[in-house]
Structure prediction request, 353 residues.
Amino acid sequence: MKYRELADTGVFVSELCLGAMTFGGRGGMWEVIAGLDQAGVDRIVHRALDAGLNFIDTANVYALGESETLLGKSLAGRRHDVVLATKVRGRMGKGANDVGLSRLHIVQAVEASLTRLGTDYIDLYQIHRFDTATNLEDTLRTLDDLVRAGKVRYIGCSNLAAWQMMKALAISREQHLERFRCTQSYYSLAGRDLEREIVPFITDQHLGLLVWSPLAGGLLSGKFTRAGGDEAARRSSFDFPPVNEERAFGIIDVLKSIADAKGASVAQVALAWLLAQPVTTSVIIGARRPEQLEDNLKSVDITLTAEDLQALDEVSRLTPEYPAWMGAAASDDRLPGQERRFAVTKPGAKAEP
Prediction:
């Protein structure tokens, strides 16, 4: 297992992170997504740690707290071997204030998470989504208080837009508050949307990137083709994240070709592509069965050639959107050697060199 620095914290995390969303199974959709009992969680967690993973991510809303409880019990005696991450934002009760990023809810939520996890500190505490009802400075000051109190080591965010993260960083700098060190965002060969705004932002601001749903909810697992898929797989009953499936099948065709040539699985190649992206800090993998975990673990040993990467890029790259295409079409670059990637021409006209 290889390790990468989490932004500029000096903390090194395994390039694969174990996701705990499959732990437990209480409450609505969690009965579909999750399902592991304590024995199943123990098998997955202990095998991941033995394989060298030192990074585990969960959230208080996963199975309505059951994921944290099961994980905490599984980590008994090994807590200090792990960089432990969890999240806050989602609804945890029926009350009007049992949700969101208010000081009231965050303080209640962190205490509950600490109890369920059986620990007195959380290494990485992340806001799960943006909360338009709460003043962002209130949220950041509360998170700063938790760091100063020793209950949280670092803070991060998840599922925020680039402008929201930049606003948060600006407030933290102005008010001398603890700042976000990373974002946990969706990224896969079938969903490269964050390359438009978020990748340039986190590269410029030196944030880490933790990738969730790297296999697009199982669509890139190798279990799905144009002819159909595994009816027992999660994707068959829980169509998330949203994906252009026809486009994804073209990606799967290329993945399978590369996988066959390397004696690997489609999932391993899809994960290896993410690990080959310079912006990636750690890729979050989840499993309900030991064999799924074993397959994912082998992705760290896959080396993609320049030709492999080019083939995957060509089949999955984003269509340029404004203002990106304007910058690409401009002819007034200031650095020597820069060339336009394409020229704007009228339909039927000969393209400029």
Q: What stands out?
A: The chain has a mean pLDDT of 92. The first strand starts at residue 3 and ends at 5. Residues 187 and 194 are 7 Å apart (CA to CA). The chain has one domain: 3-318.
